[in-house]
Amino acid sequence: MAQTTVSLVLGSGGARGMAHIGIISWLEEHGYKIESISGCSMGALVGGFYAAGKLDNYTGWLRNIDTLGMLKLLDFKGTGGLVSGETLMEKMKELVGDALIEELPIKFTAVASDVKDEREVWITRGSLLEAIRASISIPLFFTPYAHNGRLLIDGGVLNPVPIAPTFQDNTDLTIAVNLGGTIKPNIALPTPKKNASAASKIREYLQNIALPDAVTLEEGMYHVASQSFEAMQGTIARMKLAAYPPDIVIDVPRNLCGTLEFDRADEMIEYGYNLCSEVFEKMMKEELLT
Hints:
- This protein is an alpha/beta fold and 290 residues long.
- The chain contains 9 helices and 10 strands.
- The strands form 2 sheets. Strands 1, 2, 4, 5, 7, 8, 9 and 10 form an 8-stranded mixed β-sheet that branches.
């Protein structure tokens, strides 16, 4: 029996993007063959590693990194952003190597934003790492990335669920994962499986270096900018999904975890796996899938 082929669209949303890993795992375990990936920001990172056959490397590292290791990746020496991203990308290179997009076994598109020309940029050739770096350039946090004569920032600024690059795919299903889903009251992840909360320490560190002592993070500039960015992304995502509806949408509530809560890898991966299962089970009951 032939496998069901999939074009997978992985959206932006910081640490919530760890749910992408669980979703990919569920699809693989249930006989779906991912032949094409379009991603932006965290979706480009997870999707790029999967397309290169190195997602297990990234997942293993993510599950085991400690607070000190996370802080060491935040090189606060950027221009136009708090973090230059150089140290992070050196680590990513250790995990994925020097892959070229056009040589990957799975079709891959990383989506970034050229704010000067106010347009999306689809990166389908060249260095996988450079494409990921361009796509993850969250405004104010990461330094914008110079790529082929353009200064690029996070793809989610203009298109947080980049479906359009999959339009010409010859696959059975297009599945879009929206990390900017509707806020759900009282939603919460299970108690962390790790003892230390890396996220709280990272946020405290950000506060100490980026904000006045008298200002709390909740009231600070970065928090306001982050919340505004996520609200904007959620609105754009709804518009894109309405205009270009995929076969299946998997919505992750945007209040499930914060942008920097990478200490919640175990919980977010499990959440993504279970959510994917729930979405497919519901569609099968409604006879929308066979």
